[in-house]
């Protein structure tokens, strides 16, 4: 069964929005009513935590104010990093961003993105996760300090965006889907949403 358009993106992330728009899917954006900065994973694995957060974000949009479309697919995603079992999300301060990046340098960490799809009209749900491994080279303290002063770390899991940092010459290598690292695993998503039905049609 296909998932109906429009896709309601339960996220204000410009990166996720641009990746979905590049596929040509009809898109609406609705901010989720979940502040993950106020929640604690309390020892939960990175995959379980990101999946739970994706579900909470999607559900918050589903039960929130009416979306104004009778048939739609709500899409929410959540990205976290895993460093030796420690779940790392978005830094809450410049000091935390600096600490995270210093912990990452010279070694590898895992990036996990989970996606939740909901079709409210049909009561359907699809939840999946994907992971990739990033190796961050030996960044100097000066490079990290200069970067965190720019505020580009804000709103990014682990405090960085792969494509932005690669373009500036950071020593980065990775295995897996690079779109998983930047917030939306497009390889898996395309296999689930190969075709999307126009609004109001039945698959």
Report on the structure:
There is one protein chain. By secondary structure, the chain is an alpha/beta fold. It has a single domain (3-195), classed as Maf protein. The chain contains 7 helices and 9 strands. The protein has helices at 14-22, 46-62, 94-104, 141-148, 162-167, 178-181, 186-192; strands spanning 3-4, 7-9, 27-29, 73-83, 86-88, 107-119, 124-136, 172-175, 196-197. Strands 2, 3, 4, 5, 6, 7 and 8 form a 7-stranded mixed beta sheet that branches. It has a two-stranded parallel sheet with strand order 1-9. Helix 3 packs antiparallel against helix 4.
What is this structure's SSE topology?
Elements: E1 3-4, E2 7-9, H1 14-22, E3 27-29, H2 46-62, E4 73-83, E5 86-88, H3 94-104, E6 107-119, E7 124-136, H4 141-148, H5 162-167, E8 172-175, H6 178-181, H7 186-192, E9 196-197
Parallel strand pairs: 1-9, 2-3, 2-4
Antiparallel strand pairs: 4-5, 4-6, 6-7, 7-8
Helix pairs in contact: 3-4
């Amino acid at each position: 069964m296909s998932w109906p358009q429009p896709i309601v993106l339960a996220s204000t992330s410009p990166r996720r929005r641009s990746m979905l728009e590049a596929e040509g899917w009809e898109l609406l954006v609705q901010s989720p009513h979940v502040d993950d900065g106020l929640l604690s994973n309390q020892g939960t694995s990175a995959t379980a935590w990101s999946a739970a957060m994706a579900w909470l974000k999607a559900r918050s949009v589903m039960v929130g104010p009416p979306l104004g479309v009778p048939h739609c697919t709500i899409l929410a995603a959540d990205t976290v990093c895993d460093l030796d079992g420690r779940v790392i999300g978005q830094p809450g301060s410049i000091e935390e961003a600096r600490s995270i990046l210093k912990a990452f340098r010279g070694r590898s960490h895992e990036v996990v993105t989970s996606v939740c799809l909901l079709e409210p009209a049909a009561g359907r749900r699809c939840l999946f996760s994907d992971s990739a491994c990033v190796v961050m080279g030996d960044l100097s303290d000066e490079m990290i300090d200069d970067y965190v002063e720019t505020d580009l770390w804000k709103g990014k899991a682990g405090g960085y965006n792969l494509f932005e940092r690669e373009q500036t010459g950071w020593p980065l290598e990775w295995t897996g889907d690079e779109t998983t690292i930047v917030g939306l695993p497009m390889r898996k998503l395309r296999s689930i949403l190969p075709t999307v039905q126009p609004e109001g049609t039945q698959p």
